[in-house]
């Protein structure tokens, strides 16, 4: 069994690679820049080049692969359908696809179309419909927390169902190992508590011993500040879009799929903040 882990450099793919490696399951880690990955990780992983916007990379990336942990990356000209058809031709036996919670109500996002594509493809799949990543706090929210001690995001007063990407990776690993029992299933993976960003700021303050504030900017204020900072408009719009359902109060649903699959409680946000403390100090 050889598993292709896409998005290795990302918040979920890296954790999936960790979990599979711990179990000594053979993996190939897909990155766009193999040389850089080798510099960063040495021989710890086997890397293969995969760029979803460059179909000439697909064949080699899919060589001797049985299963895929699949993400849909940000960016333009992503040839996802072509990649999926090539994967089928190469005899891929199972795809675990990282999707998003409430995708069924969001026909305008890529994941809606991608889930349909995957179903039509006829390769057994497992969909992991993920809640809002805790790791966003040390990713695109990280700079402002570190530099200005504020959570700066237009998410209003709404609650969102935070999930630790390490928990998502655990579900992915289980589904990849035991494909028969998880074939053509959809799991909605969240933590066990929906929180608003005021509460998250309080917990961060308590754990980090630094006063962290949630400033709840308007979309206009957020966009203006980020543009001035040099962030690309396309990315800013994606980030605003991610937080829109929260602002509308639509992101607070909690599920218990994680517990059912793993027999464990999902990671609490306090634990996540303790574990990642060094990122904001
Ligand atoms: N953030 C959330 O709260 C949330 C919640 C639910 C679902 N999601 C979904 O999670 C997915 C993103 O996963 P993530 O957050 O783990 O990723 P991420 O941290 O945003 O990292 C992006 C990853 O995509 C890869 N990538 C970018 N462009 C690529 C391309 N053209 N071809 C191949 N790989 C490419 C990067 O690889 P290299 O660096 O190697 O180039 C990197 O590994 C998205 O589909 C998003 O909708 C996010």
From TrEMBL:
Q: Which CDD domains match?
A: TMR_SDR_a (cd05269)
Domain NmrA-like, residue spans: 2-272
* Top-level taxon of origin: Bacteria
Which InterPro entries does this entry report, sorted A to Z? Ergot_Alk_Oxidoreductase, NAD(P)-bd_dom_sf, NmrA-like
What Pfam families does the database record attribute to this sequence? NmrA
Transmembrane parts of this sequence: none
* Name listed for the protein in its UniProt record: SDR family oxidoreductase
* Native source organism of the sequence: Halobacillus shinanisalinarum
């Amino acid at each position: 069994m050889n598993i292709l882990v896409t998005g290795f450099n990302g918040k979920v793919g890296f954790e999936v690679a960790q979990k599979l490696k711990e179990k000594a399951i053979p993996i190939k880690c897909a990155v766009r820049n193999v040389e850089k990955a080798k510099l960063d990780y040495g021989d710890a992983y086997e890397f293969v080049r995969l760029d979803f916007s460059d179909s000439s990379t697909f064949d080699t990336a899919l060589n001797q692969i049985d299963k895929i942990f699949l993400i849909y990356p940000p960016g333009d000209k992503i040839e996802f359908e072509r990649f999926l058809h090539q994967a089928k031709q190469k005899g891929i036996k199972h795809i675990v696809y990282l999707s998003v919670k409430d995708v069924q109500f969001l026909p305008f996002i890529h994941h809606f179309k991608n889930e349909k594509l995957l179903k039509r493809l006829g390769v057994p799949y497992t969909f992991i419909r993920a809640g809002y990543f805790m790791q966003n706090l040390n990713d695109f929210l990280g700079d402002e927390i570190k530099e200005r001690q504020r959570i700066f995001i237009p998410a209003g007063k709404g609650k969102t169902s935070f999930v630790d990407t390490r928990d998502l990776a655990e579900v992915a690993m289980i589904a990849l190992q035991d494909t028969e029992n998880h074939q053509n299933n959809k799991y909605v993976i969240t933590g066990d508590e929906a929180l608003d960003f005021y509460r998250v700021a309080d917990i961060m303050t308590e754990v980090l011993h630094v006063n962290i504030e949630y400033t709840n900017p308007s979309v206009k204020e957020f966009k203006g500040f980020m543009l001035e900072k040099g962030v690309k408009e396309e990315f800013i719009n994606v980030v605003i879009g991610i937080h829109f359902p929260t602002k509308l109060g639509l992101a607070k649903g909690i599920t218990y799929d994680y517990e059912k699959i793993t027999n464990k409680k999902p990671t609490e946000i306090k634990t996540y903040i303790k574990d990642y403390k060094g990122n904001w100090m």
